[in-house]
Prior knowledge:
Elements (H helix, E strand, L loop, with lengths): L7 E4 L5 H12 L3 E5 L13 H12 L4 E4 L6 H15 L4 E3 L15 H31 L6 E6 L2 H5 L5 H21 L4 E8 L4 H7 L17 H8 L10 E5 L2 E4 L17 H11 L9 H8 L8
Helix pairs in contact: 1-8, 3-4, 4-6
Amino acid sequence: xxxxxxxxxxxxxxxxxxxxxxxxxxxxxxxxxxxxxxxxxxxxxxxxxxxxxxxxxxxxxxxxxxxxxxxxxxxxxxxxxxxxxxxxxxxxxxxxxxxxxxxxxxxxxxxxxxxxxxxxxxxxxxxxxxxxxxxxxxxxxxxxxxxxxxxxxxxxxxxxxxxxxxxxxxxxxxxxxxxxxxxxxxxxxxxxxxxxxxxxxxxxxxxxxxxxxxxxxxxxxxxxxxxxxxxxxxxxxxxxxxxxxxxxxxxxxxxxxxxxxxxxxxxxxxxxxxxxxxxxxxxxxxxxxxxxxxxxxxxxxxxxxxxxxx
Length: 310
């Protein structure tokens, strides 16, 4: 296991599921961990300090060091206080794992404005706000002449990178997180900060709400939330300083460094296209039409499978 001795990490949404496993793994590797969790339900309602405190107790019982934070990641001031708490408690911040999220699935035509706004806020703003404050801290350290090896690890989803019916709000937010990862990686490289992203598959409250109960199989469980944590620990290591701006699909033992938007089918004219001519070219190039494949075929090529088949 890479050593993270002396490092300080924040993990958002760390009271349950994938975030909990990230926090436990980072602590086992030697990091001191600020366990953030508002403690709301899957849809983002309510608050409860218990989940974060329970993970802190687990870490401490195993000989690690941790503290709880109950801030709302979508609240800009709460996100700032989260970063300040880590720095004030342990004197530094090295790793930020943005993991918190909620789910309010609806078909596009029946989705309420509140469903859209809440999911976009928690996922997309909830990634931006902690990253902004952590980046400001690392920039200040870099400008002061310190050697910075900062890490931001974001959380997208197969829904965000491949698309999934019934998740317009969630998928749009997760696609935005992948885009934020690419831009932040380029902007923060000058300060010694890497920014990467996971598109995980795991058995959590959110996936079971979307796909139904998923029994634990005999033997290796490909959607155990703990399967995501080794990549977080690996990317947090000093030796991973050269790896940034990547989006990793994770299913069991499959870790696929995805390729995002790339050059595709080129329609080239010497000057501005005429609409009729361009339409004719489109129909010639795509005689059977063209449409997104959907999440399942894309997941299968990336090394995964449908959660509904488990």
